[in-house]
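Checklist before submission:
- one chain only
- standard amino acids only
- sequence pasted in full

Submission:
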Amino acid sequence: MQPNDRTQLCALLDDIGTVRDQLMRECARLDDEIIRAMFRATAITAYGRGAHSIRALRRGH
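Returned file contents:
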């Protein structure tokens, strides 16, 4: 192994570590976004059911 090869290998390993850290942060951000979307979907569904119930009561069902 040439000294330059070792330097390039260390630089590549550092780049891989940097990319890995960025991917882990992005995964955590996406996890948070998915959780927020699930809460919104649940709230929208509950609102829709409530609105449907109110309309049914007004129609006498």
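Reviewer check: Residues 27 and 33 are 10 Å apart (CA to CA).
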